[in-house]
TrEMBL record:
Pfam families: SnoaL_4. It comes from the Bacteria. InterPro entries: NTF2-like_dom_sf (IPR032710), SnoaL-like (IPR037401). This is SnoaL-like domain-containing protein. Keywords: Signal. Residues 1-35 form the signal peptide. SUPFAM superfamilies: NTF2-like.
């Protein structure tokens, strides 16, 4: 074997090893990209859960600080100028919302205003959000989330606060527009479209 043949053989071996290393790393790189993507989606889904937790907090029985606690949670999820848009049952979901409110503070006042209360101003209503069928789309530092809503609200006696007076169940879906900031992802726009509301008197 000549020196030329030996050099050519070594070059072939080096190329083969290089290609093997590249192809061996490809699955790892692909998995890393997927892991980062799933982590981002999880953070965006957490924003939807954050909103639901805050909204349910407004109606906590016996909690005299419920409003301030709920608002504090909202401010962890939303940008300062976030918009909130609401379409009730029977609305044209492609048309303008019946309620369009800007800032978490203003939305908190709207949510709190519909909570039934007793003469002392305490909530006699407990709400429970159930969310499902999350769908997340990402486009750089912006994204969109869609989720189904199944909510239950239970009203209690004005006097004792123990006996149930009626139960209301709502179905609908949320759409969130989100944006990545230097610190975290935040919601810039929330849309709620209610498909049905049913009441079961007790």
């Amino acid at each position: 074997m000549t020196n030329c043949d030996l050099k050519a053989g070594l070059k072939t071996v080096k190329k083969s090893l290089a290609l093997t290393c590249v192809f061996a790393l490809l699955p790892l790189t692909s998995n890393m990209v997927k892991a980062v993507d799933l982590e981002t989606k999880s953070k965006i889904i957490d924003l939807m859960v954050c909103y639901a937790r805050a909204t349910d907090t407004f109606g906590e029985l016996g909690n005299t600080n419920a409003y301030h606690e709920a608002l504090a949670i909202y401010k962890k999820c939303f940008s300062e100028e976030a918009s909130f848009n609401f379409w009730p049952v029977g609305s044209d979901f492609d048309g303008p919302p019946s309620q369009s409110i800007v800032t978490p503070d203003a939305w908190a006042k709207f949510v709190d205003s519909v909570i039934p209360r007793n003469e002392e101003g305490q909530s006699i209503s407990r709400g429970h959000h159930m969310l499902s069928n999350y769908f997340v789309e990402l486009d750089g530092d912006e994204g969109k989330l869609e989720a189904y809503l199944s909510a239950t609200r239970v009203n209690y006696s004005y006097t004792t606060g123990s006996s149930v007076t009626d139960v209301t169940e709502s179905k609908g879906f949320y759409t969130l527009s989100v944006k990545k900031t230097e610190e975290s992802w935040l919601v810039t726009r929330l849309e709620l479209r209610v498909i049905s509301v049913s009441s079961l008197a007790r």
